[in-house]
Amino acid sequence: MDRFVIRGGVPLAGTVSVSGSKNSMLALMAASLLSEEPVLLQNAARVHDVSTMIRILGALGVEAVWEADDVLRLGGSEPTATEAPYELVRTMRASFMVLGPLLARCGHARVSLPGGCAIGARPVDQHLKGLEALGAKVELVGGYVEARASRLRGAPVVFDTSTVNGTQNVLMAACLAEGQTRIQNAALEPEVGELIGVLQAMGARIEGAGTDQLTVEGVTRLKGATHRVAGDRIEAGTLLAAAAITGGDVTVTGLCLDQLASVVEKLREIGLELDTRPDRVRVRRAGPLRGVRVTTARFPGFPTDMQAQIMALLCLAPGSSVLTETIFENRFMHVSELQRMGADITVNGRTAIIQGVAGLSGAPVMATDLRASASLLLAGLAARGDTHVMRVYHIDRGYDRIEQKLASLGARIRRIRD
Ligand code: EPU
Predict the structure, then answer these.
(1) Residue percentage of the chain with pLDDT more than 90
(2) Which of 191, 213, 228 corresponds to the end of one domain?
(3) CA end-to-end span of the chain
(4) Which of 117, 175, 256, 315 is catalytic?
(5) Which residue has its alpha carbon closest to ligand 1 atom 17?
(6) pLDDT in tens, 183-193
(7) Residue nearest atom 4 in ligand 1 by C-alpha distance
(8) 15: how many CB neighbours lie within 10 A of its CB?
(9) Do 55 and 198 share a structural domain?
(10) What is the pLDDT of residues 109-168, one digit of tens each?
(11) Structural domain that includes position 7
(12) Is 175 a catalytic residue?
């Protein structure tokens, strides 16, 4: 298992570009199952979750080929199997998103129930509720969800809770259903909007993009598409936080500012100076940092996927900060590791109280999930001495060669292959 060794204390400087959005890609890869023509993704990220989705598509008999370092060609054939196996699905919950497209295209899908997850229970009841509303007969057999429908029928779908992948799953299925589907309480996250754009390019008839009410008129077939994946908003936020925590001066390019407003505003509130353009942000320390209040929320609120990284930064902000996680019930796994580096954090239920300390010190720390790992990386960049971040595979799931990007900004970071 690889680990990162980071010698902290270097203010990062320079310009760095983000890769394509991991979470957009995972949905778009599932969407490729809807068409017999290929879907070409440009600006595609080389992250482990994408490799997992390639393997899942492979298990379904659909080819995914890297045509260039950042160009991924998907599908262009009929799925030859309709089962997504436990061995793959259990490693990545997002694989559950193949359920809707497979069912809509093949009339049958058998997808392992994802199981537990480090950041919370993460049920899939809303995915199933939506597909059942479209007429699917859904059974749970041997740990697998088995869904059948000779042709899905459009229907009203009202989500009880806003769910990103649930919205995407049901939306994809509705594109090939007969008649009209109206989805209420659809998720507003940019990855849903990006998926809608690509489905429309494939010939889907969807209205309401950017709102929580989507109307889909089903069609009988979808064509292929070529799409440039939007820059990863969470990678962008993580790199901005890396610059902020080291007192550096970094410009992050290839992002969509509209998707990052809450993060940019929070960094300003913490005391950083940010120059923004539609596709880039420069961040610098203008003066001392300040403790703030952060509450994670649905888009356009502050993203749960940036909670751990902002916590690392707040550990070094004088005064107290209050950080509340509202989306996932168990997303404070990084706290005990940050404490080992000298952070002063008290957790009470879903709220963490952080008292800023003068400095962090390097330590061996254990990555527990993707964003928790990113926060440890950030803490290591600012700490005195060496930090060893173990279980780097969590970071590799969602960050494309992050150590190379950080090193290009001056960070002293090495990957050790144990
Ligand atoms: N929920 C339900 N029932 C459902 C679905 C969700 O109760 O059927 C609950 C979840 O348990 C959670 C909340 O709704 O408490 C939100 O979950 P959501 O379904 O929106 O999350 P997701 O679609 O499974 C995506 C991202 C996550 C990101 C969340 C929230 C992908 C592949 N994953 O997950 O990304 O945190 O939306 O924005 O798109 C990450 O990249 O590190 C990551 C975890």
Answers:
(1) 94
(2) 228
(3) 6
(4) 117
(5) 163
(6) 999 999 999 99
(7) 124
(8) 12
(9) yes
(10) 999 998 666 767 779 999 999 999 999 999 999 999 999 999 999 999 999 999 999 999
(11) 2-19+231-417
(12) no
